[in-house]
Amino acid sequence: MTDLTAFIAGLPKAELHMHIEGSLEPELMFALAQRNNVAIPFASVEEVRAAYSFSNLQDFLDIYYQGANVLLKEEDFRDLAIAYFDRVAADGVVHAEIFFDPQTHTDRGIHFDVVMRGLLAGMADAEARHGITSKLILCFLRHLDEDAAFATLEQAKPWLDRIEAVGLDSSELGHPPSKFERVFAAAAALGLKRVAHAGEEGPAEYVHEALDLLHIDRLDHGNRSLDDSALVRRLAEERMTLTVCPLSNLKLCVVGDMKEHPVDRMLAEGLRVTLNSDDPAYFGGYINDNFRAAAEGRGLTREQIVELAENSFKGSFLSDAEIDAHLTKVREYAAN
Ligand code: HPA
Ligand code: ZN
């Protein structure tokens, strides 16, 4: 282990951009396919991994939704969450705010409550065994229509005390934030926070819409904001947190090479950047792999790496007292 790798490994951090369906490793996919008697179009784990070569977001989404077909029962969602938390406990993750895509499951006839109960069981297990705290972010699939998003929000109503925020994911191009202005307003009225994927493949204009129409509390990806200098200034002034995902950006060809990743340019512009894994089972790494890849690709300093970890708590939906307690631990770690 290099010094920097060891430093990253022990650094306390939060993960703020991780789709739980995207943490389904091929081994668990096979195990669940067998347990549930679901056919999958792959003969081996190696064949699954070989299929994970993407030239854009849609390429990935097609295979990601197919993978989710093995998730049927409460215990499947529980086991999926447990596998993620067990894995990131070793990465120094002490808090995670995880996305889930209920429509991917309800559209297959699985009840919303089954998904919730399973994920909550996994989250309780993580807190009991690893001391990792977590929150849930319900994502609307933006390729589906507004009515479907409203129906999903309705299903979430009995669970509002266990859902922190709503988010927006799936195919970005052609599905601007404006399509979901009313459903985000309804979510806000229910007391939910708001986040949205914007500026991953879509233009800076979609980031403006996410800010002005969806009134987001956090911006997921946001890479294309860099095309618009006034927008960058606004994001910096508003202390907006960006959940950036380096290995995802590489695998989905948002950047051509990790040496060209804009993470340090974003930091230099005063943006509150965090690093995250997005869909770790599909993009070749968990959160520390993302820290390492960005650190190596861009020659990040220890100070920059510490800033990224601090930002992960500052940008979280924890209370101010909880954030302060985590920041103290990050600073103590960095000082030793
Ligand atoms: N972008 C949009 N939708 C997604 C992603 C992503 O990176 N991962 C899972 N769903
Ligand atoms: Zn994402």
Question: What do these coordinates show?
Answer:
The protein has 336 residues and is of the alpha/beta class. The protein has one domain: Metal-dependent hydrolases (TIM Barrel, Alpha-Beta Barrel). Helix content is 51%, strand content 13%. The protein has 17 helices and eight strands. An eight-stranded parallel β-sheet has the order 1-2-3-4-5-6-7-8. β6 (218-221), α11 (229-237) and β7 (241-244) form a beta-alpha-beta unit. The longest helix is centred in the middle third of the chain and has 19 residues, at 112-130. It binds hypoxanthine and zinc ion. Zinc ion binds next to loops. Zinc ion (ZN) binds at residues 17, 19, 169, 197, 220, 278.
Annotation keywords:
alpha/beta, about 325 residues, binds hypoxanthine, globular, binds zinc ion, about 50% helix
Explain briefly what this protein structure is.
With 336 residues, the chain is of the alpha/beta class.
